[in-house]
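Technical note accompanying the year-one report. For the benefit of new consortium partners, we illustrate the data format agreed upon in the data management plan: each record pairs a sequence with a structure-token string. No post-processing was applied to the example shown here.
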Amino acid sequence: LLGIEAVEMEELPDDIQHTKERKPDFLKRITNTQGEIFVLQIEFQVVDEPTMIYRMLDYYAMLTRKYLLPIEQYVIFLGQKKPQMPSQLEQKTLSYHYNLINIAAIDYRVFVNSIKPEEILLGILANFAQQEPQEVIRQIIRRIEETANGDFALKRYRQQLRVLSQLRQLEILTDTIMLTVSEFFKE
């Protein structure tokens, strides 16, 4: 009836129930300009995780079942090297993929030219092209100072820049430049 000619058969446990609790990094219901409604899920990933495809597939199944809407999934990779994790799974009865964005492949100016400090910060993780790191860091700091609303926000963005710069091993250079830029602005 199934069309399977088994050469060998092994009994597997039939209790596959597994309690899962997943909390996406970013989850929103979106209505776009074309009037399409979908669920947007974004995961931020620092480690190149070979099994990420299965985690995203779990999310996809759970989100589809819960919201009964189309699902758009993105993994934004924040690591330095090009990610090797698979973003596509092809099997006989299943075809699945998620969108993988490598932030290190994007030109840093895309972020530095933003008017939102939260986006400008991401320039530290992007591709510096032919620019020296200290010049890029100076540009990022200047743009943050131009766009931040008040001292409290500025201090918060500087702290976030320090944290993000650790991912590129640029924290010492970033701290040094922050001190010199801060001294300049104090004078």
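Partners are asked to follow this layout when depositing records. The helical segments are 52-67, 108-112, 117-120, 133-147, 150-166, 171-186.
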